[in-house]
Amino acid sequence: MQSGGHMPESVLLLSGGLDSATLAYTHNPDLTVTVDYGQCCADAEIQASEQIADQLNLEHEVIEVDCRSLGAGTMAGKRETKLNSAPEWWPYRNQLVITLVAMDVVRRGADRLLIGAVADDQDHADGKEEFFELIDSLLSFQEGNLRVKAPAIDSTTEEFVREANPPESLLGWTHSCTASNAACGECGSCKKRQRVLSRVF
To answer: Which residues touch 119 (CB under 8 Å, ≥6 apart)?
Structure first.
């Protein structure tokens, strides 16, 4: 849903997955933003995010910056690197995406950037609570005093979805596959989505 008007105060990084969709439901942000940075599943993430924002009557925007040449692993359609901890690993991906959204929304008066990170993500350095504390400190130190918050970081996806209890029809639009615009059903993200939905609903 696109709309003009008031200055956003809270902005949600909406990837179209279970965590950010649930955060959109619980926190009702002034603006949701999806980033196409060259990931192979960008079209599906954008479509899912548009549907989620529309159902919740939230403003939605898309930022496009092609960083595919810098990517690695399945999300970039490339071979994994020796540094990877998972097939979909992309160097500094969360830092990149957060920075791109921050660059857009800080000049529009936003003061909070909400991230749908959960306890399940802490296998990766940029999914740890410490990472979000560091990037919050970094962005708030700079012009605009933008704060970064990960409200669900202490919960697993299953715990967060179960407690928030968003409608199944909303989560039905989500896309979690990291390998394709069409859910492969085989990657870790697809299997996690299937597991959570089957246990919660």
So the answer is: 153, 154, 155, 156, 159
